[in-house]
Write a structure and sequence with these properties.
With 128 residues, the protein is mostly beta strands. It has a single domain, classed as Jelly Rolls, CATH 2.60.120. The chain has a 5-stranded antiparallel beta sheet with strand order 3-4-11-6-9. 17% of the residues are buried.
């Protein structure tokens, strides 16, 4: 079992990041993120929900106008818009994604996100 120890931002003991199965309450995780000082003081706030050698899932809250800068990942990426709206730039093409939409990006596709309103994204990276 893999755990993450508590931090100043998230006190209260270790969180399980990997086990035979990991159940996550998305609403509880969102409440935690939006109650933290980081949400008030920065453009976005995130929490790792699941992490192994091959897969990582992160829940990210973004304020309007916040950006996740251009990057490419050595693996497949899925972005699910839980709430809100973002502009995804992928290989220089801009696409608007809204609540309930999901996009999959192949290995090493250069991408970035710009929140056009308060947005929650579930990002999952599947390493090659």
């Amino acid at each position: 079992m893999k755990t993450m120890e508590a931090t100043e931002q998230r006190p209260g003991g270790a969180r399980v990041l990997d086990a035979p199965y990991v159940i996550t309450d998305i609403n509880a995780a969102l409440n935690t993120l939006m109650d933290e000082r980081g949400w008030e003081e920065t453009d976005c706030n995130g929490i790792t929900l699941f992490k192994t050698d091959n897969i990582t899932s992160v829940l990210i809250c973004m304020h309007p106008g916040s950006r996740i800068g251009e990057n490419s990942i050595d693996g497949t990426v899925t972005l699910q818009i839980v709430e809100g709206e973002v502009e995804l730039t992928a290989d220089e093409e801009v696409v608007t994604l809204r609540t309930g939409q999901l996009v999959m990006l192949h290995h090493e596709v250069t991408h970035s996100l710009l929140a056009t309103e308060e947005t929650v994204v579930l990002l999952t990276n599947h390493v090659c």
